Amino acid sequence: MAIIAIAYLIFLVAPMLLLALGSFGESWSGTLLPTGFTWRWYQELATDPSFRRAFVTSLQVVATTCILNLLIGLPLAYAIQAGARGGVRVAARIVTLLPVAAPELVLAFGFILVFSSDALPWLGSFWLLAAGHLVLTLPYTVTALVADMEQLGLDHYEHAAATLGAPFTARLRDVTLPLLRPSLLSAMLTVAALSIGEFQLSNLISGFLSRTYPVVLLQAFYGATGFACAATVVLLLLAAVASLTSGLAAQFAGSLLSRRAT
Amino acid sequence: MTLQYDNVSYTYSGGTAGVFDVSLEIGRGELLAIIGASGSGKSTLLKLLAGFVKPDRGRILIDGHDVGHLAPEARRLGVVFQNYALFPHMRLWENVAYPLKVRGISRDERRSRAVEMLGRVGMHSRADDLPAALSGGQQQRVALARALVFEPQGLLLDEPLSALDAGLRMEMRDEILRVQRQSGIATLLVTHDQEEALSIADKVVMMRDGRLVQIGTPRDLYETPADASVAAFVGQSNLWPGEVSGDGMVSTDIGTLSCDTAGWAPGAKVTVLVRPERVEPITGGVDTAKPGEFAGTMAADRYLGPVRRLDLAVAGGFIRLETHLREPLTGASIPPGAIRLLPPT
After folding, report:
1. Within 13 A of A110's CA, how many CA atoms are on the CB side?
2. Domain ranges in chain A?
């Protein structure tokens, strides 16, 4: 068991280490490890306007996707948990999961067909990109929240709060949201991780000025190895920053709410 | 404050389960227990009063006002749930103060009232703990405090003791009764535990298939049950099918018994009820010629501490009896006064 775990970790970590190593290597071709040390690739990356723009775009897309997930996913999950019974409940859960079942390419082609028409000429816009990311990530949010609501026995607490005189808004503020805080946190981490690394859909539907970081990253691999390595390391950092920020934001929002609850 | 069901019916969608034509009143300070098997509709009655479901027909009245259209939060009823439902992210005092918070009472006042209420259930020293740090019995006390702190119009207890150990259950039973008596509040207790109901209720209602079968004092239900199902549910019983064979005589599978047959015509089918503690044990010679006296062998002998509960195999069936005697029995005698005739099943 330990051997498998170690082998798995090496398999997972080794490429990342090599990337990090390569990003500081002056030249790397034909040898096992890169040779020489340089900051050059990071400097080039920092001054490249398309990478800089993509970096910002990615953060904006992630933030927008997270917020939309909260605004749409939470009420949707709540409605499924509290309102849907029997067949409706099953149907609702299947429909929420559908985007996971459809290959991203199919979604992307669908988007291209619909939004390159004259009636809906939104292809290439930031908001369409964010909407695409929302479609891809919402199933994870809703599924996780519904499962956690059931597992928590949220309806018991809500019934209890109701008998104690709390109307719907008070129950939401004092009971439902504070109890869901850890679930919201993990859902946002998942959404951020999925959104930051998303390539297939973004590559096909983002416009020239709204390309996300992974889309631009692909081009780095046509250039110097060191530059590609540095660009990939930045993506890793970006993912870490996005996950941490979204997690902290969810935590902060939750603690604000529960401070008000006391 | 009185709680009242006026001819209430409710059917669960897509089924035949529910409650039907229930009329019931719980007076001020009265503790009414609803007993019945699973699916008898007793929990539905509680949900109707709490407002979780709305009646299809009939009225729910609190202090004479129809509240059938009101949401649970507008009914001012304290509810203690089977799983307590204490909010895990709030300290005990915050839990108890929550109903005061939603009523807009200032933080200082609600804290002092919550701590005072916790004191009434012996939990004031734990006011700053989280519910997870508490045992089941302690959570129960806090749940009771939270349900009473806002001076509700009625108290509803939904199987409040079913998650507790047997010993603790007795203690909490007394505790609930004490607090309920102190507040003088109309209380509805839903339980499947007939012993719990008998020991603390002023009135007991037996339900079956969504209908009231009998309502009365604990003593009424035990001693004069309306039918065999009530007799079987409340306490231990011998129930034999029989036929009135003459004035003062009933014939059963185990033989002819003499008893009061007033109100039953000769030839009428009946169910004969005898409570086990009313059967008299015989340890010596048995005179089977005497009516009501049976020779038998012990088929089952359960030692319960203060008493033994025995099944005595006699010709034609079994007699269940309870005795404090420790010696082997040779027979049993059923005095006429111990026999009650019920409608046939």
Report:
1. 9
2. 41-261
- For residue B252, the SS3 value is strand
CA distance B131 to B118: 13
Q: Which CATH architecture has domain A41-261?
A: Orthogonal Bundle (1.10)
**Residue positions counted in chain B:** 345
B125, two tokens: 């020293």
**Mean pLDDT across A200-225:** 87
- Give the start-end residues of each E strand in A3-75: 25-27, 35-37
Across the A:B interface, residue pairs with CB atoms under 8 Å apart total 71
Q: Residue B62: count other Cβ atoms within 10 Å of its Cβ.
A: 20
Residue A56: alpha-carbon gap to chain centroid: 15
Amino acid at A21: L
- Cα–Cα distance for residue pair A177/A72, rounded to 1 Å: 14
Return the residue matching tokens 């020779």. Answer: B295
State residue A21 phi and psi, 5-degree precision.
-60, -45
Confidence of residue B203 (pLDDT cuts 50, 70, 90): very high
Say how far apart CA B222 and CA B195 lie, in whole Å: 11
- Taking CB atoms and an 8 Å limit, are B101 and A174 in contact across chains? yes
* Amino acid letter for position B287: D
- 3-state SS, residue B211: strand
Strand, helix or coil for residue B303: strand
Q: pLDDT value at position A261?
A: 47
Task: Report the alpha-carbon distance of residue A53 to residue B273 in Å, rounded.
Answer: 89
Who among A163, A175, A179 is closest to B79 (CB)?
A: A163
- Beta carbons of A163 and B147 less than 8 Å apart: yes
Q: Tell me the pTM.
A: 0.83
